[in-house]
From TrEMBL:
Species this chain originates from: Streptomyces violaceorubidus
Domain of life where this protein originates: Bacteria
Similarity annotation: Belongs to the GPN-loop GTPase family.
PANTHER family on file: ATP/GTP-BINDING PROTEIN-RELATED, GLIDING MOTILITY PROTEIN MGLA
Keyword Plastid among UniProt keywords: no
Keywords attached to this entry: GTP-binding, Hydrolase, Nucleotide-binding
Pfam families, per database record: ATP_bind_1
Protein name: ATP/GTP-binding protein
Keyword presence, 4Fe-4S: no
Amino acid sequence: MGSAPSLDERHYVRGGATQTAVKILVVGHFAVGKTTLIGSISEIEPLSTEETMTQAAESVDDLKGVRGKTTTTVAMDFGRLTISDRVVLYLFGTPGQQRFVQMWEDMARGALGALVLVDPQRLADSFPVIDLIEHYGLDYAIAVNHFDGTPLRDEPALREALDLLDDTPVVTCDARDEKSSAAALTTLVRYLLDRTR
């Protein structure tokens, strides 16, 4: 039986520069757009564990305020985004339902930070997610996923409603749009870099 191939620096070098892999969580409540955001921005075919929702799930998952939701993440989403010759982001999307909370401990291990997606029409649904992120000691940025037809909320009102610290970044994004999703992640990465200096 042959030995497994060893990983050497050639696997981590692009153009002579060593790359740093950064684990980022993409989190949020049920049906907020986590899978969509990772799919819009991943440079590889994203791993998605979307399954068709059943009648049994409809009795557990609150579909109030959710239009056209027919699938749900049952394990995680995964994508990759190279943001420079030196930094590559590994994006892990978590399921938003309370019944999947037991997965969070493993998902949070080794993560540098989290992008918390929120729906401006369902802000209260974000409280348990933010509590979990804070419980695991992760720095985070808030990305308000602006859905079609929803009014924009001003940042001070959002900060107050979500009880955020003054330095927590808040951005508006459209999870369907690659540039918008990239801008939200860039805001998070800049914030994380500032926190480590």
